[in-house]
Amino acid sequence: MNDLQKKSKKHYIIETAAELFTEKGFKASSIRELAQRVGLEPSSIYSHIHSKEELLITICTNCASRFTEGMQVIMSTPKSSLEKIEMLIGLHVETAFDDPAAVAVFSEEWRHLPEPYLTIFKDAKKQYEQNFRLIIKQGMDEASIREMDTNVVFNTIINAVKWPYFSGKKYDKKKILETIIQMLMHGLKK
Amino acid sequence: MNDLQKKSKKHYIIETAAELFTEKGFKASSIRELAQRVGLEPSSIYSHIHSKEELLITICTNCASRFTEGMQVIMSTPKSSLEKIEMLIGLHVETAFDDPAAVAVFSEEWRHLPEPYLTIFKDAKKQYEQNFRLIIKQGMDEASIREMDTNVVFNTIINAVKWPYFSGKKYDKKKILETIIQMLMHGLKK
DNA sequence: TATTTGCAAACGAACAATCGTACGTAACAT
DNA sequence: ATGTTACGTACGATTGTTCGTTTGCAAATA
Fold this sequence. Notes:
Order of helices and strands of chain A: HHHHHHHH
Number of helices of chain A: 8
Largest interface: A-B, 43 and 43 residues
Helix content of chain A: 55-70%
Largest sheet of chain A: none
Oligomer: homodimer
């Protein structure tokens, strides 16, 4: 088995783990069931990974990087706050569509991360949220965004944008993105 | 110990369980830790409950009833679809504020319900969602709601309204409710 | 080409820890 | 005195993981 195949087998285990963790949650997912899904005996899994927690760390860290990097790009782009928020919504929707299982685990299971990864994760999350709120605040200062409680606006957006990962990808990404943006920008009322 | 106190002790155990399940998740919460939090030995818990799963069933069922009943009231009220949606948003925000731990468990841990409760829960959930979507659809037919994909609108609202339970109750319920409604009705754009 | 070497991958078995929970008994309240 | 509440102990099941060994395949040697 050459390097490429070796790499892709570990990757396959991680992918399968993400799906399993999504279905049952991290704590309710056993190495034995993971092994069964990838077609190995439980002990053989450990020829590829060091621990069950390593799987969670890998999944969460990869996903976190994606969001953090996306935020950096968006922050340093010379656009209006409103356009930046649209880009952020796009970042969330696209990430959720590309790898729904990973985003689901990242969103729901991060609390099971072992230290020091848990602390690192929480710090990154806090940083991300602060950046997000800053953009919202700037939009209000520019008077392009209605004056509302920043925190409520932030939480509403971040959760409104959170669902595509558990609704199956039976929908069209572009259409969903457009609708969510329309919804959040102009609201329900005609 | 009289009937009232007896009842309130079981209730206290359930409340504590809801908090514990919220913090760690159902699977990662042990009876031993629950016992410690309520000031009992592990085995003593079983003088009040039949099983760990019973706690989850109780929490989820109570919460589900509250939403189902709220939906019934709102559906049979002679108001516009837009007003009904505002009432639904109110139902979610108020429930989340009144008992954040229970709502958190209800929202995140229901998949660990044992059968037949799991099936019953999923059916009730589906029914609730269908009713919600119907109200949205009616609003579009009445032309008071912008024509958009019903499912996207539904998911956006239901998740936008889901967060107050994990943000601590450090905020003013009324103010949050008003802001969320403003946000969802009129959007970000000024 | 034929044979040996070496290493990663897979395995079966078992261990220690933790889990939910049952059981028999003691303390307590009415 | 009777029934409820609390307890200590322990059992059986499941968990993540380790260990020593075997298998399979590729590179090196003959």
